[in-house]
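ingest -> fold -> write
write: protein_1
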Amino acid sequence: MKIGYVPCSTSLELPGDRRRFVFYAQQRGIAFEIADPAKKYDLVILTECADLSVWLRYPHGKIVFDLIDSYLAIPTSDLKGTFRGLAKYLWRQTRYLHLDYQKLVGQVCEKAVAVICSTQEQAKDISAFCSNTHIVLDAHQMVLRGAIKADYSAHTPFRIVWEGLPHTLGALDLLDPILEKISQKYPLELHVVTDLVSHRFLGTHGKIQTQKRLSHFKNKIILHEWREATWAETITRCDLAVIPISMTDPFATGKPENKLLLFWRLGMPVVASATPAYKRAMLLADVDMYCSTLDEWINKIIACIESQAYRKEMAIRGNAVALRNYSEENTLIAWDQVFESILT
């Protein structure tokens, strides 16, 4: 079988590649090449970075679509969603103009013989376009590098850490008033682990320094550059990880539990917004660290500040579930099921 893969990066180093299909292919010894739409393949694996306008018109082999974000959940009133198709065309991210990018995503789902997603909510939305839908989470084992938290004694000031891509830094706006309130009694530091430079538009245009984007925050922020060799050690030197999410943004709330699991694998206690995926994972671990209100955020962070035993217990429970229920073997089996569904 000749397999073509449309990656997130030609180096195959971005998380969307190396934590997903590329990881699976390497582990199972599956040969593939970077897909060229001018060539014939038996199977093409598309990521969200693919030019969907081109692959919608692909006349040859089967297509599997790895759709990990909740594009189909974006309301029609969303301004950014309304202009996404035009922006992608103007910036040459799509060859053909599709003003309704959400519709294009749905059309590619219809064309695909299988669609891979990352949450139950996504699977429900996708099922209207493709009945062969599979939930597969990221593989994290290759990025942990052995840095597991062992010392749960607190620092002074208390160290809270956030990790993510620069385009999600807006979530920290939700955290600012929470930390400002807590810092009236407890000295705090917010450690931010991300890229030092990013782009405002479509990931390629409008370069901006991350430090400048963080300049308006009232709380003390210590910025760390995301580097694979050091990011895990930076995080585990902190006392508590946080994952704030805007609960009014369906694209954000549709995210899977990948980041939560990554923190848990590092042995970190985590307080997170009560998105469906985070809440499911925490209930599975018997960890009451998900928040829906400002008061819940304040009370649960304070509980972590005040009790080393509580922080450690929540971290241990989360780590146990991450290792048991979300193991590398379970991830490989989920990918196996995708291929079995299209080859049998």
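write: protein_2
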Amino acid sequence: MKFKVVVFSIFFSLFTQVGFAQVLTDPDMALPDSLQLSELEEEEEEEAESEEYDSLVITPSNKYWDFIRPRNFYFDTAFAPASQFYTKWDTITINPYKQDLKAMEDTINLVLGNYDDCAFHPPAIGDLSSGFGFRKWGRRLKFHFGTDIRMEVGDPVYAAFEGVVRIAKRSADYGYVVLIRHNNGLETLYAHFSQLLAYPGQPVKGGDIIGLAGSTGRSTGPHLHFEVRFKGEKINPSTLIHFPSGSLLADTFQVEKGCFKHLYEVKSAKLKALVPKYTKARKNDTIRKIAARYGLSAKKLSRLNRVSSKAKLKKGRRIRLR
């Protein structure tokens, strides 16, 4: 009996090996190739991720990028773009640099369109509703530091150049806002989104959609507010981009003090807004003292009031300031 069991075991073993060999050599019975296997593995991974995502519970404490940012995402600030110009990487403060570029002595050449890592794409498609410069805001004059492009709520907004998203958040004035630092050294700001589709540390290329147009923040209607900045200071976007065609004026751009001359106008306008038309002299006042008090020219005040800048003024005398 034992002999029959041993013979049967040997016969069964040979039969299964031959059968398995036939499976391997029979084209109709072949195992999936590597592509098919990888597709099966990807499907299994996608199903696992889907189950994991569906199990998440959204609460008010969750930030939106918890759901669009890849899991375990980490951005090493050592790889922040344009490190030759910037030493800080701040994901909260829009202008952490606080540099005065009105009197910069150097001229810096930036490459805008070499179609490698600086390929350009217009930030939005639409007509201009407001340009860079002074405009009336209610009863007062206010400087508008960007270019407004008329859009509909939900229209896509694009990154202008390749770079990394530094800021994506909601602010009181800008509403939902995105700021990108680009490889070429510029930073661009996009405001009033209805929905953000970007997160801090996200690498983007020119033409990537970073949000949907809206009217959040201090806005009177749906549009994109677009700014160009260098080291925190704003540059007129129309000196780089031809609106409304949305094309670069040149493949390079020179940053020099002339780019920031509008800041003198802004400062002058702020002082003018703070300075009344007339004031009354205090005890022991002179034109020089009054001029210093209001940040004005003593020579101009002296000529305006027909009095020496050194002469003591009678207390209560009416002095014209502008």
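write: annotation protein_2
Residues 14-51 form one domain.
The longest strand covers residues 187-196.
pipeline exit 0
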